[in-house]
Amino acid sequence: MTVAQDTTAILAVWGQTVTIMRKVPTFSDSGSPTPAWTSQGTAVADIQPIGGDEQRVDLGEKVKTTHKIEFPNGTAIQGGDRVRPAGWAAGDDEYEVRILSEQTPSHVRVEAEKVRGHGG
Prior knowledge:
With 120 residues, the chain is mostly beta strands. The protein is 10% helix and 62% strand. The protein contains 1 helix and 6 strands. It has one helix spanning 3-14, and strands at residues 16-27, 33-58, 61-72, 82-85, 93-103, 107-116. β1 and β2 form a beta hairpin.
């Protein structure tokens, strides 16, 4: 078994299915952009709270992270994406990716902040 297969096996037991959402502009007939959240697909992830509020400094900005989320290697996720647990409904909490903190041959780890769902 490879390390990546080990991660996949662990997430199959401990993880949950999530949907990755990304804000993508759509354009009206007049060319005006309107941001819309669109699904980038599903993945299996392990969402864990970080003890207390951990403050990180990234490029001179304070970034608040409340959770770490681990995905299998190769998961297409980036800063600003939102992670919605299975069963998410408008108004439920979701997680906004703040930092892609680790990418190894076995997994991708992001740090995220729990935010109130935006409803769309």
